[in-house]
Amino acid sequence: MDNLEAAWKYVRLGKRYDKEVLLFGYNTLGSLIRLHNELTWKKYQVGQYREFIIKDPKERLIQYLPLRDRVAQQSLHQAVEPIFDKGFIDDSFACRKGKGTHRAMKRLQYFLNAARQKWGGDIYYLHCDIRKYFPHIDHDILYGLMARKIKCKETLWLIRSIIDSSTDSPGLPIGSLFSQLSANVYMDVMDQFIKHDLREPYYLRYMDNFIVVHHDKKHLQQVKEEIRGLLKNQLRLELNPKGTMIGRTGDGIDFVGYRVYADRVRIKKASIKRMKKRLKVMQAMYRKGTASIWKISHRVRSWLGHCCHADAGALVQNILAGAVFTKG
Fold this sequence. Notes:
Strand order of the largest sheet: 4-5-3-6
Number of strands: 9
Helix content: 40-55%
């Protein structure tokens, strides 16, 4: 019950007046006891997924669960995430406490400088991307990986229930808390292979995007084929041809929203283009009175937070100088 109560408090953060939160919280103790009893007696059934589509930066189907299911998943996450996280490699940066995109970018820049000091001359990188990652996560393989570290039968029952609640098999829904943890557990097989079997010191991953840095292009080509074989034979995944390449680090590397060089960091052109488009949309919404200046400033500050980690001072000033908001 203590774990469920902590999960409820976490899930409701920032959603105090949400209809589902109000209904669940009207009788919080009763709601938590019912959920607790369903879990205890294995009567719990995962609710119906709700769906919506986002198109920025690319079209994706997002699926999320009713609030009581999010409470159940949060309680599960609180119990098992520390068990898995302590076994992950340090250079896995997605959906982990103390990690994130900014640390991933800085770690890559560190790798570029370390490789240049170690080998000198031209340094190359292998950038890989998994083809439709979440839709191709195999349920049985994922459950097997989780069962290696979780021995509690009741917890495994809940894990299996959530895995099989996905509308697709194979596949996990994008937008679920459990899917985020599952994605790291699944890719940890590859992380361990590259770090410990292939012994690549300059390797890092953010979700299904990962990079290996080396001075030898032929070596990176061989590493790519080793990775391709592991993904196919053990995880039933494939590399995305469009997102997989070998290039010179001196030309910069597109990673986690930045273009990373050894001595500087730029904002990706695609990110700049998207922000200019968003500003035009927000200007039109403000003119019509359908968006408040508070909401607009919140979105702009979020983008500025991204930019402050790059050498983008002049760029930001030029973009914002043309963003004038006036009422219609």
